[in-house]
Amino acid sequence: MSGSEALYQQIILDHSKARHGEGELVDAHASHHELNPTCGDQVTVRVRLDPARERIEEVAWEGDGCSISMASTSVMTDLVRGERTDRALELADAFRTMLRSKGEGEPDEELLGDGIAFHGVSRYIMRVKCAMLPWVALEASVREARLPAVE
Ligand code: ZN
Predict the structure, then answer these.
(1) Ligand 1 centroid to 130 CA: how many Å?
(2) Other beta carbons within 10 Å of 105
(3) 3-145 to CATH, choices 2.40.480.10, 3.20.20.150, 3.90.1010.10, 3.30.70.260
(4) Ligand 1 mean position to 72 CA, how many Å?
(5) Phi, psi at residue 136, to the nearest 5°?
């Protein structure tokens, strides 16, 4: 195992225990539940945007599953909290691209931050869905929350 692989495994292990952002969210603008039937992971992501609906003011989640899915959700929370919604969707795209790389190439650390810890997961088809789960839920929540409120 290379030094960076060991570091990535440590990031995943730490986040699977710390589970940043886990909890309820009052006044959420949208929420979305995602299930990964192959592994049994499930997560509900809730977002609250700023009044202009351009920025993620707060994000929180509830769920349970394997350490990869829980770590991915925790890392995602850190990455998107306070971000512009278009930036968060861009991150979700970048994360998806990385997870489809089958371990090829170098992930963009500047863009993905601790998210690059999941680069190695892309070599394991069965685990890709685990890592992608919270991002799918986030995309759906952000898109719904951005819709103008019906008066
Ligand atoms: Zn899983």
Answers:
(1) 4
(2) 11
(3) 3.90.1010.10
(4) 10
(5) -65, -45
Q: Could you tell me the residue ranges of all domains in the chain? A: 3-145
Residue 98 near residue 115 (C-beta atoms within 8 A):
yes
* The two structure tokens encoding residue 82: 């306070």
Q: pLDDT truncated to tens, each residue of the chain (151 aa)? A: 677 888 899 999 999 999 999 999 989 999 999 999 999 999 999 999 999 999 999 999 999 999 999 999 999 999 999 999 999 999 999 999 999 999 888 888 999 999 999 999 999 999 999 999 999 999 999 999 998 655 5
**Residue 99 CA to ligand 1 centre (angstroms):** 14
